[in-house]
Input
Amino acid sequence: MPRKLQLSGITRRDAIKTATSAGIAAAVSPFVHVNSARAAKTLRILQWSHFVPGYDKWFNNTYTKEWGKKNDTEVIIDNINLSLIESRAAAEVAAQKGHDLVMFLAPPAVFEDQVVPMNDVYAECEKKHGKPIDLAIKSTYNPKTKRFFAFSDSFVPDPVNYRTDLWGEIGMKPDTWEDIRVGGKKIKDKTGIPVGIGLSAELDTAMAMRAIMYSFGAGEQDAEGNLTINSPQTLEALKFVKALFQETMTPEVLAWDPSSNNRQMIAGRSSLVLNAISVTRTGENNKMNIHEKIAIAKAAKGPVRRMGLEHVMDCYVIWKFSDNIDGAKKFLVDYIDGFKEAFLASEFYNFPCFWGTVPDLKQLVSNDPKAVPPDKYAVLSDVLDWATNVGYPGYSTAAIADTFQTWIVNTMFAQTATGAETPEDALKQADTKMKAIWAKWKDRGMI
Amino acid sequence: MMRAPGPSALRPVPRGLFSRIADNETLLWPALLAPAILYIVLLVGLPFLLSLYYSVSDVTVASRAVNFVGLENFRRIVESATFWTALRNSVIFTIVSQFFVVVFANILAVALSADFRGKWLVRLLILLPWVAPISLGAIGWLWIYDSIYSIINWTARAVGILGPNDWPIWLGQPVLAMASIIIVQIWRIVPLATVIILAGLSSIPNDINDAAAMDGAGFWRRTFQITFPLVMPITLVAVLFGVIFTFTDMIVVFVLTRGGPYDQTQVLATWAFFTGIQGGDLAGGAAVSLFLFPVLVAVAILFLNVARRTEVT
Output
């Protein structure tokens, strides 16, 4: 007769049966897939949770539902935190299973071997809407393999956001980097309110530091992709950021995440940040009066040129192991056809990579009903003149992506700004790391 | 008085596979061990072998072809200043946090071994940091340390500890950032260590303490000359768990500082993640993570040896 466990009253046999059944169920359940009876095909999309909630509402609940009905496809959207995209993509590649479309927020050149070339998608969109912008091409094309490893539908401008009241009081406007240093210091000395440009291991810092580098004539590489970080121009940019940090900022920028500058500006504790228009949109949508005091300006001018970055570069990839490659390509082409809706749903956050899809963009951004004043966003209409890609003046290659994602440039600037390293030593350290990265990707035939 | 067996007891017991295993001692123990062994082989053994393989290759997150490159990845890693910073930080993070874990866990375990009203509630509260998902806990701490809304700073200012112009940036200044991640790690590991040490305390026979009390030994003498020596082996096991969990942990650092400011809280686990997954260099990431392995093996052997020697039989 089976022995009984003293307290529970169940037999050992029962316990083993239950445990075994539970174990098998737990092990097998992830592999059980129930196909939808409603649509013939499925299209799975992985993308970030947009900074403008209204965009996700439109994309998830309206646009994709309607597209799905027209194409007899069930569209499933998974929205995840922006910092998890790379790790999720790596997991899908390892499993050779996952979504049909994956959207990265920075050029994903390192995934080139696993993705379907997008040359035909670009060609079809070009036929309908004209050439894509240079920013899209530089961010998604590998000149070595002659392949588009991703498709960019849109990008997000990265203008200067500044407090008109504070800058008005000192009689200045932040047009150049030197203005920002001088004016930022005056405001901080007078009011205690600092400039808020990140110096941390995060996206916004990565963009801001590159904007300074490029406007000072420095860069990670030249147009041919050769490593050029170790230059007198980079040294000048480092010395400038050191002065900027010490004269206008506080150590809080060393701890920031991508939304910290939004919070600082909205809390009224910053005179200037570099960010997308999510700062002012948050204020407008949440009826916080501070948004009326925040103005938008073009990327600041440096000693060599006026050059900013894209704040976010939407880059869709289709895995080679996707179950619905054709459907994913069609989705992208159709999405570009109706891109104006996306532009409006994102409240001017997502700018088109096919400029012809929003022919009245200039008029729209010059008269926004939510903005105070209504032409607040008009400055964005010539964004293509002052926004460039990561890796300027070259392409966003695997070496550029690796450097970007391991925050080497961010660390170099933070080390210098805080005085932890001299500008020369910080540059030398970054140069050593980047030489190793360039050698590594060259060995692998990616650059 | 004996009762007649009921109708259910007279029914023949079905002799299926489960029944045969359940009733057969020689089959039962391997059957019960099998899931654990399978788990270790699949989720620990295979990934470990795979990372060994990757570390001497040029594999990326996207490549299927794997070419042998010898020790090239290790050579590149040791040439990087970030690696040495991460190694130093990992050691500091682990040693300092585990020192405080041992102190706090012993105090808590001694306190919780006494009888008092509401003990179950106190035990539950102490266990919460361990049972709650660490990512959620870390996000909570992120807000506590926030550069703008830090509740610590706000409270300190409200009670007059901080002046109107003082506002420590917990995650932005190197020493404070390291202290912050250590505090969170202590908060996270103390419950586990407390439970382990508590189990050790409850296994000490009452006779020993009673005899010591009869001989006139006070609380401190009993604690330092009886209790601590007797729980030393199990305390070392708690420390071993703590060291391994801390040395291999990336969540606390990833959520709170992402290695910043300028790599001053970068640890090997986060650097391996940034290199291997974010940067796409899977081989490099595997090589960084393998630096952990010999250290952990040495620590495990040392602790288990010391635990065996200090065991009181």
Notes: Residues 75-310 of chain B form a domain with the MetI-like fold fold (CATH 1.10.3720.10). Chain B has a mean pLDDT of 87. The CA atoms of residues 229 and 310 of chain B lie 8 Å apart.
